Amino acid sequence: MNLGSPDSTEVKDVSRYLRQFLMDARVIDYPYLLRSLLVKGLIVPFRSPKSAAAYQTIWTKDGSPLVVLTKQLQQAVQNEITENVAIGMRYGNPSPEAAFEELLNKEPGLEEVILVPLYPHYAMSSYETAVEYAKEIYRKKKYKFTLATVKPFFDEQYYLEAMVTNMQPWLQNGYDHILFSYHGIPERHIRKSDTTGNHCLLSADCCNTASEAHAHCYRHQVFTTTQRVTERLNIPKEKYSISFQSRLGKGWLQPFTDIRFEEMPKEGIKKLLVICPAFVSDCLETLEEIDERGKESFLKAGGESFTMIPCLNIHPLWVKAIAGWIKEYGQGNKKMITAD
To answer: How many domains does the chain have?
Structure first.
């Protein structure tokens, strides 16, 4: 299960997609009437034409890169396992219901479905909303099969090995700095997800202080992914940093990626590598926001070389990671997958 994309780059399709996306109470967590006024009255009418134009710059002959890559991942995983594989999107098409029905058509006696949310880190606006949406459809349709879910895999060995192997070739030509750019979220989402109610963002070192809150803390988890990857690649601390992209409004996690692109050349960083570990498939936020607009901003500010490392997409180790979790679950190892 991935995020999803508009059906086309037509403004009407982009508008429909944005309404579904931004009216999600886990994305914009304002009361319904305020959210509806903001989204339908302000954001969508003004943002849809701009977003449609942005999608046009990355659209392929087969459609949205995110959808195309997710379909390719589906086929690659299918080649590794005997169980039937289908894809569903949180927003747009194909829906989780379509995926469930596809699996049932292939296997009428279906006993269990394993949901694989393609989000490494827990956030209410990504992993949580995808899982809860799939569960809502599952309950509403009263399916007889059971539903199990892969946990966030930010610190899981297979994922980290795939990340490291994917990055290695891009480090060979030399660089001044590596920027780990994660999708941004409002700080209030971090606080809302704090199961203890008294840990997240209450101290400067909260993400490094042991707490059960970390199981649902996006900020802690992206810090952990970065640490694990850079340790495996022997990247010195002064050669990398973290930032957050795609901000919408005030009070979001900092530093902001777009601001860092303008600042880095002035700090002597001329050859920059950028990777977006919160995304496993290249999409609008990596291809247009980072590799097009971000690159232009960095070079205009005085940078000399800008390289975006592709997402995992259909990297062989990433394919084997997903297949491995499913196989281990079938063998009785419940570490990565929980039954509902």
So the answer is: 3
